[in-house]
Design brief:
Oligomer: single chain
Number of helices: 5
Radius of gyration: 13 Å
Distance between the termini: 26 Å
Largest sheet: 2 strands, antiparallel
Structural class: mainly alpha
Shape: globular
Helix content: 55-70%
Strand order of the largest sheet: 1-2
Number of strands: 2
Order of helices and strands: EEHHHHH
Amino acid sequence: MELTPNFHFYFPSFNARRKAVIEHDIHHLLTGYETTISGESQISAWEIAAGCKRYWAAFLIDTSGLMLGIATNFSTVLSAFARGRQTKNLYHDTFSTDEALDLIT
């Protein structure tokens, strides 16, 4: 994640994160939340509100994104959280990854 042009933050890649990252990226496409710091905090709020189920890595990473968003971008994060409370996401295993990809193409 690029925090500034000269400072990048890297998340370690482990199996539980790899399992969640595809769904997370599809969530960005489906919701329209950008991959900026602001967008990551919004998608974090949305995913937590919609439910992370057994994706503990997503919950852990989303919690840090949510906290950052509350501190820097409260109103848009609150709006994303409210939006997430009214929907489900791919962490509910409603669709397979391939079916979800078909939704965006």
